[in-house]
Design goal:
7-stranded mixed sheet; 416 residues; 2 domains; 4-stranded antiparallel sheet; alpha/beta; Aspartate Aminotransferase, domain 2; Aspartate Aminotransferase, domain 1; 15 helices; 19 strands; binds 4'-deoxy-4'-aminopyridoxal-5'-phosphate
Length: 416
């Protein structure tokens, strides 16, 4: 076990300093210091993000784009600065290719309703994987029901990795879209999305990547990946809830019909005909979530201050340590043992229901997620109802993993 000093200074990260930025972490839960291991569900927010919200609402709250008064101009410019910050963060070619959404689910539904309805018809095929979140399954099922298209599912092996050869065989000239998760929220598997994108493009299919779990843990680079669409939620990336990002390649976004109709997304409206605004505004109808979007820039600054590479390396060590320590408990079975994985450790314990484990750990101040994690078909494949999931972030420590493992050992003893 690393000494306290080493734990707090890893890969150029001063974990003590990082933790000091998160007020919520410094509290007792059920009489015990909080150990927050539910980062895949949502991350906690650093002070700079919380302060950005206070600054906005106490300093320059105003509706954007339409006003010419000082507050409106200030709010508009902060809103658009966040768009440019996202462009940099994901190395997108242009800021206009960044659309603000309410989150990953909203982004996927946008693509299904616009690109999907315009380009996918009867007999066409959409490919997803076996480890998708419900939000990357249901919108495609709805689209298939409406259009008569077919949904095909890439199988996985026992470790929770996609079977690439099976994917290659599924592709055909009928494949219109491949929509796949970058990192699985239930297993932590990092999918070989670059290879998936290249292969799909050989068949002329477009590719949507669900980056909900990737954006906080590994580099995401649109120009390197060459995907057609990429979506994620800011609340899993130290930002506010209710905001998300959809990246799309300009020609695709321009050709797509609009999503929601209303103010902001139009150029001119008459009762006879409406012309639509340019991207990105064509897809941002109505007053957006201005305050939270403004705070996005601060969340990205937080990540950049520490560096994705450092964060990935530190989280990798935390994950290895959690894996090793958990395997010292005989009744623990890990679910998802991919060679390439990050930040998530999912497991079951013989003879104890996952909900009971979650409740007993909560009594010890440890926040774990239990259940199917919105991936019911994946749980069915593993023949289980759900797992206990610890999902890690850069503010977690080796000591916290020890606390979790000691708690689980205790529970295992009691249920022997
Ligand atoms: N995809 C994945 C892989 C996720 O982990 C999640 C959130 N658990 C989502 C999609 C949906 O994200 P949101 O609820 O923020 O729209």
């Amino acid at each position: 076990m690393s000494s306290n000093y080493e734990t707090l200074n890893k890969h150029g990260l001063d974990i003590r300093k990082i933790r000091a930025e998160f007020p919520i972490l410094h509290q007792q839960v059920n009489g015990k210091p909080l150990v927050y291991f539910d980062n895949a569900a949502t991350t906690q927010k650093p002070l700079r993000v919380i302060e950005a919200l206070t600054d906005y609402y106490s300093g320059y709250n105003a509706n954007i784009h339409r006003g010419i008064h000082t507050l409106a101009e200030k709010a508009t410019s902060a809103f658009e600065e966040s768009r440019r910050a996202v462009k940099e963060f994901m190395n997108a070619p242009e800021a206009e290719e960044i659309i603000f959404t309410y989150g990953t689910t909203d982004g996927i539904n946008l693509i299904a309703s616009t690109f999907g309805r315009a380009n996918i018809g009867e007999g066409d095929e959409i490919i997803i994987s076996s480890m998708e979140h419900h939000s990357n399954i249901v919108p495609w099922q709805m689209l298939c029901e409406e259009t008569g298209a077919k949904l095909k599912i890439i199988p996985i092996n026992d470790r929770g990795e996609i079977v690439f050869e099976a994917f290659e065989k599924m592709l055909s000239e009928r494949t219109r879209l491949v929509s796949i998760v970058h990192i699985s929220n239930s297993l932590g598997t990092i999918n070989p999305v670059k290879a998936v994108i290249q292969k799909a493009h050989e068949y002329g299919a477009k590719v949507l990547i669900d980056g909900a779990q990737a954006s906080a843990h590994i580099e995401i680079d649109m120009q390197d990946l060459d995907c057609d669409f990429y979506v994620f939620s800011m609340h899993k990336l130290f930002g506010p809830t209710g905001t998300g990002i959809l990246y799309g390649k300009r020609p695709l976004l321009e050709a797509m019909p609009p999503f929601r109709g209303g103010g902001e997304m139009i150029k001119e409206v008459t009762f006879e005909k409406t012309t639509y605004n340019d991207i990105p505004y064509k897809f941002e109808a109505g007053t957006p979530n201005i305050g939270d979007v403004v705070a996005i820039k601060r969340a990205l600054e937080f990540v950049e201050a520490y560096g994705k590479e450092n964060i990935s390396k530190y989280e990798d060590e935390l994950l290895q340590y959690a894996n090793e320590r958990l395997q010292t408990i005989p009744s623990v079975k890990l679910i998802g043992t991919a060679q390439n994985k990050i930040s998530v450790v999912s497991f079951i314990m013989e003879g104890i229901h996952h909900f009971d484990i979650g409740m007993m750990m909560d009594a010890r101040g440890v926040a774990l997620r239990t259940g199917h994690h919105c991936t019911q078909p994946l749980m069915d494949l593993f023949n289980i109802e759900g797992t206990v999931r610890a999902s890690l972030s850069l503010y977690n420590t080796f000591e916290e993993i020890d606390i979790m493992v000691e708690g689980l050992k205790n529970i295992a003893e009691r249920f022997k």
